[in-house]
Amino acid sequence: MAALHHRDGWKAWLVCFSAVVSNILIFGSASTFGVIYPVLLDDFKEGKATTAWVGSLAGFLTFCLSPISAKLIYRFGPRLVAIFGAIICAIGLFVTSFSKTIAFMYFSYGVVFGIGSSMTYNSNFDIVQKYFKRKTSLALGIMTAGAGASFCMGFIFEILITHVGWRNMYKCTSAMALAVCVSSLSYSPQVEKDYEPKLPRETRIAQNGVKHTSLFKNYPYIICCILSFFYVLGVNIPLVHLGRYALDSGLTLSQVGHLYITYGVSTVIGRIVSGKLCDLKCINLIYLNSFVIVTVATAIMFIQYAKDPVGLNMYCCVHGTFDGMQVTATSVMITRYTNVLNRTRGYGWFNQIISWGFLLAPPLGGFIADQTGSYIPAFYVAGSIAFIGGAMEMTLKCFNTVDIGTVPPMEVLLETIDDTNHETVVQKITVL
Hints:
Layout: H1 10-31, H2 33-44, H3 48-64, H4 66-76, H5 78-96, H6 102-131, H7 136-149, H8 153-183, E1 203-207, E2 210-212, H9 219-248, H10 253-278, H11 285-301, H12 309-337, H13 343-372, H14 376-393, E3 410-418, E4 423-431
Helix pairs in contact: 1-6, 1-7, 1-8, 2-3, 2-8, 2-9, 3-6, 3-13, 4-5, 4-6, 4-13, 5-6, 5-8, 6-7, 7-10, 7-12, 8-10, 9-10, 9-11, 9-12, 9-13, 9-14, 10-12, 11-12, 11-14, 13-14
């Protein structure tokens, strides 16, 4: 039997780096849809809301299928699921290059690419949190920074669109997706594990006399999922429509590509800094997350005053930095509101809930812009929706729970029913 890799060791950082590469190459096509969006508008001559469904479907399925992806990961392991997910992404992107209608792109890009993206993204999260123990928050921050860095791919896509056209651009991104198959080979299942008991027919965990039988009875977890839905619904309106808004304001396609670079660099910095902050015992995650959400919402509502390259780059810098901090902080909160017995499933359900924000945001912004003839009302609505998430964040302080900024490992009693001897077995385990 192969030796187990140590958690937090050099192998763990290699896995984290591979996850970053995967997120950049796969999410590069999804997160920079705002660059290709105005090109599709001009090519297919469809409405803003109709065209926006292409990107929203891909984002929706990436997160909505997380519970299914989690089951596949549990059955086949993150390495195999990540490789097959990358192959599916490559097929979807390649077929998209031959699209003749927006409806066909709904299937080739929205559905096929979305399915593959879900498999790779959830595999990345699963393997990184397994390889780290003491520096989990920092590792998650770096891993999610890969998704943020994928916005920098907008500059590359702009160059490809200008020189070879958007159809050949998708063929190039298809080849990039296949490279993820190589990076995913490092996802070895041979890693040290916490104690994970095999659970027979009936299982319950008791702490201080309280039974925790379901994620849906974990009210702080539920609130965190709902507020994240409102946040995602709000912030994704300007992210997708920023390119069209910038072109309408007089910027060139090349300058639009630079906006996404600014956003990408800023969100990478925000995610890594937030990952480090979340490891500090003096930082209260509830206050931190509420502050960054309100800051992003305010920036969205003031975007109307940014109509030149300098102003829009400043907006992207603020939005990117604090959005990156929010992504990492929320990931850490979900990790700490769950335990080793239900963490993967909890993150899967979290992704499924926020996926509806990814689905509805771009068409909602496009619909408002089509009806009013301007993106300004759409940005006001987006900022207001994000504010709701920030307000809901503070309700978490109403629960008499341990401050999630300083959650220690829990010693709990695990009671299982032995079907063979019909006896109750009680074990004390540490749940991180």
